[in-house]
Please model this.
Amino acid sequence: MVDVMAEEGQRREKKNAGHRAADLVEDGAILGLGTGSTVEYFLEKLGTRIHDGLEVAGVPTSYGTQIRARQLGIPLTTLDDHPCLDLAVDGADQVDPVMHLIKGRGGALTREKCVMAAADRVLVVINSAKLSPQLDVEVPVEVIPFSAVTAARALQDLGGDPTLRCGIRKDGPVVTDNGNLILDCDFGTITDPVTLEASVERIPGVVCAGLFTGFGEKTRVVVGEKSGTRLLPL
Ligand code: 5RP
Model:
């Protein structure tokens, strides 16, 4: 049964995190614009600040974010025009104490990883339940359709249990903005995320693993709470 109170609390935390991140954006910044419901709150507040005179431009990580940013009057650019970004703001599905992330429930993981790699600094916006002592939620893996079956077997060989992501309002598999498929892979508790990310991304046909272990040093996390936010590391 859906816990309405819990969902409302989670929404409030996401809103607090997204809005705080928008408050931290500096005038003139070239931004990476992540994807997801927490980023949606960030975009909303960023749009208000732009309306009030803030000058920024952003590289969207998905068609969803691109459409929403346009609606909100957020100027857009591309990685071709701005290969170095000042700040990427994005959500996550889980965050461990050293800022390793699991990302990709929204299916935008590949562009999100490209944008994070291009950014000097990263702000991850989450609700408090996503902080975890270890990573143990499913890892999305984007694969080219040609290799989906062989990649699934290789993920099993790495100890994973992959499931082809299928649509909710569409029959059949979800197709990403890049024309690929997603295997959601359960690895149980991940003891060595760095090695696992590298091993998954070595599988032929894998485009991107939803494990993001390389950005910890430039990452700060905005944790939304019921009545405010916390910035990590402190
Ligand atoms: C999309 C993502 C999202 O940022 C992540 O799934 C978190 O989403 P939400 O803020 O809706 O919980 O990685 O690919």
Observations:
- DSSP finds six helices and 13 strands in the chain.
- The CA atoms of residues 101 and 212 lie 5 Å apart.
- The longest strand covers residues 119-127.
- The helical segments are 4-23, 37-51, 63-71, 109-118, 148-157, 193-201.
